[in-house]
Amino acid sequence: MAVPQSVTDPGDPRLHDYTDLTDVALRRRREPAEGLFIAEGEKVIRRAVEAGYTLRSLLLSEKWLDVMADVIEAADAPVHLVTPELAEQVTGYHVHRGALAAMERKPLPDPADILTTARRVAVLEDIVDHANVGAAFRNAAALGVDAVLLSPRCADPLYRRAVKVSMGAVLQLPWTRLPDWPADAGLLGRHGFLTAAFCLNDRSITLDELAARRPEKLALMFGTEGDGLTPGALAAADTWVRIPMDAGIDSLNVAAASAVAFYATRG
């Protein structure tokens, strides 16, 4: 059982994993390079542990000791006890959920291993907003998508905000990166997937038409905020799809569009 240790110095090296959490550029470089990510809040920390991620350490304020007692008891990692004020000094923001955990990343699986068993996958190309990535993962988990594949430039699903917005879905849903995108779109075809690219184009079929086809294996492709899918991704797709809309609205936020697409093609 880990014994909580009080830390009073914001510069204590034991708190290194938690420093400057609001500096997005810094964390994008540090976290993958150091093999860590940050889980925030009781539910997300529990889901990370349940998903088999290794706990590096916990950062808790005193009021969370009883709530997290079972996690602490099972932890083979340091538990740093800090005041809310110190936590804010270290992280750069008010940690209103009171509990943070530094977790070890897992090696990403081979895309082919994921595609061998999956029947419906989401492909996210160059989506740079962490909240959108987290929301897409949450939608995918809630609506029965088997896995998520990311282009190399897509935002990190294990960045703190993405994990938080997904409510831990990024820790439970299989995912990996496609290292040679969009050339890797051919891998989807070789595994029997119909690839459907969401875009605004007169050649696009409607989402209802796609759903009516009921393909045995389906890959739903979504592009970056604003510009959408790249020409290379569109060229690699088997079909283009649009979500019909009213009131002069031409498109939805990518996270909202993913929810609509996942729901319409379920089952």
From TrEMBL:
Top-rank taxon: Bacteria
SMART domains on file: SpoU_sub_bind
Domain RNA 2-O ribose methyltransferase substrate binding: 38-109
Family: Belongs to the class IV-like SAM-binding methyltransferase superfamily. RNA methyltransferase TrmH family.
Biological processes per GO annotation: methylation
Keywords, alphabetical: Methyltransferase, Transferase
Tagged with keyword Amino-acid biosynthesis: no
Molecular-function GO terms, alphabetical: methyltransferase activity
InterPro entries, A to Z: Alpha/beta_knot_MTases (IPR029028), MRM3-like_sub_bind (IPR053888), Ribosomal_eL30-like_sf (IPR029064), rRNA_Methyltransferase (IPR051259), SpoU_MeTrfase (IPR001537), SpoU_subst-bd (IPR013123), tRNA_m1G_MTases_N (IPR029026)
Pfam families: MRM3-like_sub_bind, SpoU_methylase
Phylogenetic placement of the source organism: Bacteria, Bacillati, Actinomycetota, Actinomycetes, Kitasatosporales
Protein name: RNA methyltransferase
